[in-house]
Structures are given as C-alpha cells and as structure tokens.
User: Which sequence fits this backbone?
C-alpha cells in the first residue's frame, strides 16, 4: 500500500477579517471580511498533498454548508476523508453537527488572533479511529488542538498505540490547556515534536521540551524569520528561513508542518526537510489567506533562485 501522510488535525472553516488592530475589551473595530475558507487541519493536509505525496484526513467533516465547503476543497486537493460520524451524529456543546468555525483577525503586520468554535470534528470516538489502518511507512500528524477537544483522550489512546509509523506532534497555541497526562503520553510517542517560541515558553523552555520526548526523537523549535532550531538530542543547529515580506502569517506554521510531514514521508534527510518546510512557511506568510501553502514545484523554484 502507498505510504501516506495521515493528518488527525481537525479541519475547520476560517472566517477571515483584516483589522487595523484588535478591539479593546467591550469595544469594536471596523475591518474587512474575507470569504469563508477551509483552514486549520485543511492547511496541514493540503500542504502535504501539494508535495505530491498521498495524504488523508483522519477526521470528521460535517454534513452542513461549512462541512460541504471543506469536503469540496479536500477533494480538490486529492485528500481522502477516512472517518465517518457514528449515527446519530454527535453534537458539540451548542448542539452543532456541522464543521466548526475559526474567526481569524489579521493585523497590518501580519500577526493573527483566533476565536475558535469547534464542531463535529471535535468528537472523535475510539470506534471511529479503530477503523483506520496505519502502516509502518505512514506519517501521522497530531495537533494539540485535537488533544483539548472532547475526543482528545480517544485520539491520544489511538496515537500512542500506533505501531512503527512516524508520529509528528505540533502542540499548538492551546498547549497550556492540554491535560498533562495526555500531553506526556503523546509527546513520548512522538518521533518529531515541532513547536514555536511561544509554545516552547509555555512548556518551560527548550530543556523542558527536550525532556518531554524520547532521547532519539527530534525537536524543531520554529522561530519565524529567524529560522528553525533542529535538535536531534545529540546536536542542535539553526536551519535558516528565507527573508520575505510578511503579509498574513495565518497558516504558516500549519504549512510548515504539512510540508515537513511530506518530506519525512519521502525519506528526505531532516536538515533538508526542515529547509523545505521553512520555505513553505515563509512563502505562506507572504500570501494572503489561510490555505496558501506552496506546491513542491514552487518550493523547488524558490530554492533554485535563492538557495534557501
């Protein structure tokens, strides 16, 4: 069977807004709204698929208008959806049975702030996950967002029981809200842990992060324009990122993760895999929108022109 990137990162629909600054508490700011677009886990799995590897979503897509939008876009990327809801479909705390939403506010410097309302995708169950067959050459991608969701413990149990396959964990912005037992179990199973500077601080710093994983695991500390620290446990060095003008950093980290997963699947040596992921993150940040990850050809072209 063809090896695949199996992303468990929930697909939501982004409702993007551009604003001059965030409103103060109780205040209001006039902004510009964009069209609803699949984001979150869509960015991860689409970025992987755009590297010409097989990619599939180990997640739920709702039957309503937002889920239908997500399903169309996943199909356009060639991404299979492997899970189906159990009948009757579970609902979130608000009774929703469609794909969840994420309001994204982007400021002029490209920084973004989120408000997320999870939907059907947050309700994974052991029965759903048991139907997924993972092969030893697959790469399984996990996000901390999904470990916080109601189905987080089911996902953690499934991931930690995955034999042989490479597990890539991105703890994400909600890392401080993940149940400690769940985080420790999944981090210990991870072969690659990728996180940004804020998430590193929330976990107690680089040394504390290193102790979360097995000695042979790799830790990637993403530092934006300053590049990415590749820590193999025996050595650490910075892989530089290309200089770009940041327009919208939405999805840059997810694009980095998706391309990294695709390159690990290909067997690309880690320094080169990280270099390509850095280019993907930078190019994504230079484009407006939540799912603007480059294709493999675009990354190749950038490296041919600039060398990194």
Assistant:
């Amino acid at each position: 069977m063809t090896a695949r990137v199996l992303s468990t990162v929930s697909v939501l629909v982004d409702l993007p807004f551009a604003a001059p600054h965030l409103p103060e508490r109780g205040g209001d700011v006039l902004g510009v709204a964009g069209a609803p677009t699949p984001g979150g886990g869509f960015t991860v799995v689409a970025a992987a698929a755009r590297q010409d590897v097989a990619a599939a979503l180990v997640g739920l897509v709702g039957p309503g208008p937002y889920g239908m939008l997500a399903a169309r876009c996943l199909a356009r990327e060639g991404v299979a959806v492997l899970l189906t809801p159990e009948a009757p479909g579970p609902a979130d705390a608000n009774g929703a049975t469609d794909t969840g939403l994420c309001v994204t506010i982007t400021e002029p410097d490209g920084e973004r702030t989120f408000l997320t309302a999870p939907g059907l995708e947050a309700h994974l169950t052991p029965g759903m996950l048991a139907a997924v067959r993972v092969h030893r050459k697959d790469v399984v991608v996990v996000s901390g967002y999904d470990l916080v969701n109601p189905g987080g413990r089911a996902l953690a149990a499934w991931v930690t029981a995955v034999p042989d396959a490479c597990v890539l964990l991105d703890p994400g912005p909600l890392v401080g809200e993940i149940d400690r037992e769940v985080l420790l179990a999944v981090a210990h199973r991870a072969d690659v842990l990728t996180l940004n500077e804020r998430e590193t601080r929330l976990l107690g710093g680089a040394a504390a992060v290193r102790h979360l994983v097995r000695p042979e695991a790799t830790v990637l500390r993403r530092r934006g324009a300053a590049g990415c620290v590749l820590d193999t446990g025996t050595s650490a060095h910075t892989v530089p990122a290309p200089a770009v003008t940041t327009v919208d950093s939405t999805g840059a980290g997810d694009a980095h993760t998706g391309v990294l997963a695709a390159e690990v699947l290909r067997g690309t040596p880690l320094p080169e895999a990280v270099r390509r992921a850095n280019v993907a993150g930078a190019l994504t940040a230079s484009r407006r929108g939540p799912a603007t990850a480059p294709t493999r050809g675009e990354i190749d072209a950038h490296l041919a022109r600039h060398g990194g």
Remarks:
- The domain at 4-11+39-98+121-306 is CATH 3.40.1190.20 (UDP-N-acetylmuramoyl-L-alanine:D-glutamate ligase).
